[in-house]
Design a protein that fits this description.
single chain, alpha/beta, seven-stranded mixed beta sheet, six-stranded parallel beta sheet, 15 helices, globular
């Protein structure tokens, strides 16, 4: 049996994705690593547009894809083309948006929707399909039929992440020179944990993880890093340093193994402030970039976002990271209610604190978030392609053209 995993193409109206960063399709590589007794291929359509050619050449029995919110239409287009090519191919979708909003994939050309983690669900789905048994026996699925969705028994979250096989990076060998972040090229991606214990109202990641925070052991992380050829590693956790003792064990394991890489990690500013020593240690083994969601330069906005953090922590973390020679990818939310003076004040703040790698993202009520349920009646568009951090889908205080001009001026 042949399985084709497809990373959908980037939306043509997304002017940021793929230009500043392009990560390897890690989720698909992990799923591929979990599949046995099948021939598996990965098609990255962000780089290679040849879906029909791949279908002709590979002749898959099953095609599966994934997407975040802005890529929903691209994922649907992939599966629709597959069904038009051969209606007997089993079409499957999973991932972030499918987990939170499976109804958006309730289409006649979609055979199965994977809810939650797919490492166990997807192989079981393949075996059920191979044996021509009832798919309703497989946990963690939503099955479209006659315009309705039928949900099977929910799948439990994976208790021990160390049991998950390594990603099959060999399947993306032909693409690997294209994965990058800024000047980091080629770049690989890895994860050391899943989920986040915090409850920011604009974030859906803790929803996808069902409020759980789970980790891989330091030894397992080091074992995988030792297999990666690329020098640059983007660790794509939601909160890499939350368990500081584990972060110290990872530091020791990487150091003792003599693994020489350069790392980007995610962290909260309050963790950096409470444990500056962990930054010093990780800097020693190659930490170069820390992504922090500062979100705002005003405490009242942080409280409104449910961030459970302070501007004082943010500024002290900046001082600590700069003192250790670590670059900061400083993420800020742009409230659609901002005035021209608010934009100017934020720009002045970023310059004053010497944040040379700022990222300005428009506050967006992504489906599944608390913010979405609070404000969905205010949405100015339900076009998912606009849910990309670069377009406002809430009413803006400024005329929309002026709002986006102010956003562009922040980068200038």
């Amino acid at each position: 049996m042949k399985v084709l995993l497809v990373q959908p193409p980037i939306s043509p109206i997304d002017f940021a994705a793929g230009k500043l960063v392009l990560n390897e399709p890690l989720a698909l590589e992990i799923i591929a690593g979990c599949v046995s007794n099948c021939e598996v291929g990965i098609l990255d359509m962000r780089i290679d547009k040849g879906l029909e050619q791949e279908l002709d050449t590979f002749q898959p029995d099953i095609v599966a894809t994934t997407s975040y919110t802005a890529g929903v239409y691209a994922a649907l287009a992939v599966l629709k083309k597959v069904k038009m090519y051969n209606q007997h191919i089993l079409t499957v979708v999973g991932g972030h948006h499918a987990t939170l909003m499976p109804q958006d994939f309730n289409k006649e050309f979609v055979d199965a929707i994977v809810i939650g983690e797919g490492e166990i669900t997807f192989p079981e789905l393949l075996e059920a399909f191979r044996a021509e048994t009832d798919l309703t026996k497989v946990k963690g699925l939503a099955l479209p039929k006659d315009g309705m969705l039928s949900f099977t028994t929910p799948r439990e979250a994976i208790a021990d992440l160390d049991t998950v096989p390594f990603p099959d990076r060999e399947l993306t060998r032909e693409y690997r020179q294209h994965y990058f972040r800024g000047t980091w090229k080629p770049m690989a991606s890895s994860y050391t944990s899943r989920g986040c214990p915090y409850r920011c109202n604009f974030c859906a990641m803790w929803k996808v993880a069902r409020g759980k925070y789970r980790v891989r052991s330091a030894e397992r992380v080091a074992d995988e890093l030792a297999t990666i050829k690329e020098e640059y590693i983007d660790i794509v956790d939601d909160n890499t340093l939350h368990d500081v003792k584990r972060a110290e064990r990872m530091y020791r394991a990487i150091k003792e193994r003599g693994i020489k890489k350069k790392y980007k990690i995610y962290a909260r500013s309050d963790t950096v402030v409470k444990h500056p020593e962990i930054i010093e240690k990780w800097r020693e083994i190659g930490l170069e970039l820390v992504l922090i969601g500062f979100e705002s330069f005003r405490d009242r906005e942080l409280r409104a976002y449910g961030k459970r953090n302070t501007v004082q922590n943010n500024e002290e973390a900046i001082r600590i990271l700069h003192a250790n020679g670590v670059e900061i990818a400083a993420y800020f939310l742009i409230d659609p209610n901002y005035s021209a003076l608010d934009f100017l004040a934020l720009g002045d703040y970023v310059e004053r604190l010497n944040l040379t790698h700022p990222v300005f993202t428009i506050l967006t009520p992504f489906p599944g978030t608390e913010l979405f349920w609070e404000r969905y009646n205010e949405l100015t568009s339900w076009n998912y392609e606009l849910f990309d951090f670069c377009h406002s889908v809430l009413p803006t205080k400024l005329p929309i053209k002026e709002f986006h001009e102010c956003l562009a001026n922040l980068y200038r």
